[in-house]
Amino acid sequence: MIRFDKVSKRYDSGQEALSDVSFTLDAGEMAFLTGHSGAGKSTLLRLIMLMEKPSQGEVWIDSQNLGKLPKRHVPFLRRKFGVVHQNHQLLFDRSVFDNVALPLIVAGFHPRDIGRRVRAALDKVNLLHKERLNPQVLSGGEQQRVGIARAVVNKPPFLLADEPTGNLDPTLSAEIMQLFKEFNQVGVTVLVATHDLALIARMHHRSLILRQGALIGNGSSSAVTKQGPDANQNIQQPETNATPANTETKTEVSE
To answer: Is 132 exposed, middle or buried (0-12, 13-18, 19+ CB in 10 A)?
Structure first.
């Protein structure tokens, strides 16, 4: 479970990246985080990962208030999260296998367990046959799938994705989202930050909509997409007692 309780984030420059944001993402739920560029999506993800701290309010992961988490426990909390980035952040001086193995090496896994987990993760994303290759020779979609394998190799209960399909065409984007759907179907909590309304339109999951740092929407993906390209700017604030959408019809994030 991820819970934000009246969270605001103001930087020293005076910029208010988030303003009084409150929501709960239940365990095993998949949801989208959307809004215009600069709306606060990446800031929200960084707060979840304890890469930054809120100026006001509380962020909870399961029963843990992150504001009261001792610094020595931060690395252990981060291991609960798999993170997928838009540019996948692979190391081109290492093989596909070694890239995926990195979180396990850092966590101190036995080499035998590392091999088993890495190959299982690569098999899941259909790249087991390319484990010895350098990521540079892979296509953009394959590189992103390596990033996903690295994110899930430690079997985290949470997956966070920050614009994971931003550099991919619609066909490859659908393949990546199908992988996220499959992980969600086995109980992984998934939060995908994206401004791709066409992508959201194909999904039937709750959408959290940010505008200028404020959460202005928290409901069905259809509430975003039915208004067209300007939905992120024009979406109406839902009723406070609205029930989050979490239907069975689903389509499609390393340290």
So the answer is: exposed
The helix or strand, by DSSP H or E, that contains position 190, with its residue range, turns out to be strand 189-193
The residue type at 202: R
Angle between helical axes of 111-124 and 140-152 (0-180°, round to 10): 130
User: Would the pLDDT of 255 be above 90?
Assistant: no
Tokens 């300007």, residue located: 230
One-letter amino acid identity for 238? P
Domains of the chain, first to last: 1-80+157-164+187-255 (3.40.50.300), 87-155 (no CATH)
Full-model pTM: 0.84
Taking only the tens place, the pLDDT of each residue in 67-94 is 999 999 999 999 999 999 888 889 999 9
The pLDDT value recorded for residue 250 is 35
**CA dist list (Å): 213 to 108, 160, 180, 255:** 38, 19, 26, 26
